[in-house]
Design goal:
Blueprint lengths: L4 H19 L19 E6 L11 E2 L1 E3 L2 E6 L11 E4 L3 E4 L2 E2 L13 E6 L5 E10 L5 E6 L12 E8 L7 E10 L3 H4 L6 E11 L2 E10 L9 H10 L9 E8 L2 E10 L14 E7 L10 E3 L4 E6 L7 H17 L17 H13 L11 E6 L5 E2 L31 H6 L3 H16 L1 H14 L1 H11 L16 H24 L2
Parallel strand pairs: 4-9, 10-15
Antiparallel strand pairs: 1-2, 1-5, 3-4, 6-7, 6-8, 8-9, 10-11, 11-12, 12-13, 13-14, 14-16, 15-16, 17-19, 17-20, 18-19, 20-21
Helix pairs in contact: 5-7, 7-10, 8-10
């Protein structure tokens, strides 16, 4: 019989011990045989001591669960050059197949390392050591000239930005930038402010495509911090031409921690953002009071439409073209032959993008998408109007207390009452497209739920630090209709609301 070497020596020790006991007979006075203790290879403590790691202000002990060792370094730690102290029962310690000297060898902890405890007889046990920097998210350092506060939406202030990428992203050397505030209610009502940063030259940001302008979403009203991100995830599944990419990061301003931010691409024209080419337009349904003095806009019979790109003069040729074109679309939509496949509204607009834009906003019950703002669409001359991109979902998934008592509930249509969408719903062909496409999003429901869990797990340490700074959990923050004491409860509520919403929509759409 062939005996596995891993168990051969322990087995021989046990057999030999039994043999000795058998030979001793019944006279215990003649021979005192002690039981043989077999020492198993194991790590009992994993630490970083200040005497070996000057970047630490106090000793750091990691957590051991089974064969997994975890922890997180403080933000100041030099985690690429740390010296661990490991208490273990083995003859030697090997890290990633390289022998180490305990309390002496320097190790890079940007990655998950495998520590192997070796016994003299050849037995060994592997441990996975996963230590993240701070919360595990990349860290962005914003420094303004003279430590000036970022207190204006209109005026940029000069500064620099540096990125410590951590495990998932590259480090970025210090570069010049300008930064200002952004947003509307998020800027005026909340202490944690959102920002727009403009780099000196185009550059990638957290592995996102190269561009100058980047947005820092504070996600203050959304205690899960996930409503925008999950809406973008639905956009990635859709027929929409472009959906912003985003990534979470910890942000320091003038060396002071300012919380966890959602760093996103800006909704603007560009070949790697909203591609409107040389003769296209990026437009937004918005409100007059939200327009700046130099903004250019026009009216249709239903809405104010702001011209976001390109920069135009009032009543010039391009201005009159796009104003007339969008009004022609709206006229066709409300004409008696609106459903005509040749000369109806479908002549002007890409219906597939309307269906996907509608469904994502309806699934998430986005309060602003009824008529108010962030209703984006774009068009190139000679092509059909296309809906999108998606934007501004922190007040979705029922996270609003000012739109009526029924709004926070997962039941009830909302975006369907947008006047353009409502008219299209009177076209049976459009209704069937919506039903068919909803089945696609319903089939991806579990994928979205899994992504919520994945993001929540990734934000586990970050949300703790963010709440320590801003203390939003367990209290009312405008415009929360409901709030919970813990982050996990907020996540559970988000998932439950979304699941109930999908169930209700499935039945309601099938009844149309």
């Amino acid at each position: 019989m062939k005996v596995n070497n891993q168990f051969a020596q322990p087995l021989l020790v046990i057999i030999f011990s039994l043999f000795l006991l058998a030979c001793g007979g019944s006279d215990s006075s003649e021979q005192d045989v002690s039981p043989v203790v077999v020492v198993e290879p194991m790590i009992s403590q994993f630490s970083f001591l200040t005497e070996n790691n000057p970047s630490l202000s106090s000793n750091l002990n990691l957590s051991i669960s089974g064969k997994t060792i975890t922890g997180n370094f403080p933000v100041t730690a030099d985690w690429q050059g740390m010296i661990p102290t490991v208490e273990h029962t083995g003859e030697s310690l090997i890290i990633n197949d390289t022998p180490q000297t305990n309390s002496v060898s320097v190790q890079d902890f940007r990655y998950i390392n495998t520590y192997t405890v070796m016994m003299e007889d050849g037995r060994q046990v592997n441990y996975s050591v996963d230590v993240v920097a701070f919360t595990g998210l990349p860290i962005i350092y914003l420094n303004t000239s003279g430590d000036a506060p970022i207190d204006s939406k209109e005026d940029y202030i000069d500064g620099t930005v540096t990125i410590k990428g951590g495990r998932d992203f590259d480090n970025a050397a210090t570069v010049d930038m300008k930064i200002r505030g952004r947003g509307n209610s998020t800027w005026f009502l909340h202490p944690k402010k959102p920002f727009q940063m403009k780099l000196e030259k185009k550059s990638t940001m957290l592995n996102m495509p190269s561009k100058k302008k980047w947005l820092f979403l504070a996600e203050y009203s959304d205690k899960t911090m996930l409503r925008n991100t999950m809406s973008f995830e639905m956009g990635y599944l859709s027929n929409l031409e472009w959906t912003p990419k985003s990534s979470f990061a910890e942000v320091y301003i003038n060396d002071e921690y300012n919380g966890t931010y959602n760093i996103t691409e800006k909704v603007e024209e560009g070949s790697n953002r909203v591609d409107i080419g040389d003769n296209g337009y990026l437009l937004e349904i918005d409100q007059l009071e939200r327009q700046d003095a130099d903004d250019v806009y026009f009216y249709t019979g239903e809405y104010l439409v702001a011209i976001k790109e390109p920069s135009l003069d009032w009543n010039d040729q391009q201005y009159n073209y796009i104003k007339n074109h969008i009004n022609e679309f709206e006229d066709a939509l409300f004409a008696s032959n609106y459903a005509d496949p040749i000369n109806g509204y479908g002549k002007y607009i890409d219906v597939d993008t309307v269906v996907d834009w509608y469904l994502i906003n309806e699934i998430n019950k986005n309060v602003d998408s009824l008529f108010f703002s962030s209703i984006y669409f774009h068009v190139k001359v000679g092509e059909k109007i296309k809906m999108g991109p998606l934007w501004d979902f922190d007040l979705s998934f029922g996270n609003v207390d000012y739109a009526g008592d029924d709004f926070p509930l997962p039941e009830g249509f909302w975006v369907k009452d947008n006047t353009w969408i409502a008219r299209m719903f009177t076209d049976p062909v459009f209704v069937e497209k919506v039903k068919t496409r909803f089945a696609y999003f319903k089939a991806n429901q579990n994928l979205i739920l899994e992504k919520i869990d994945d993001y929540a797990d990734k934000l586990n340490l970050a949300q703790q630090e963010n709440d320590d700074e801003w203390e939003t959990l367990g209290i009312y923050v405008w415009p929360n209709p409901i709030w919970y004491n813990t982050y996990s409860e907020e996540i559970t509520h988000l998932k439950t609301w979304y699941s109930k919403r999908m169930t209700w929509l499935e039945g309601a759409l099938n009844d149309l």
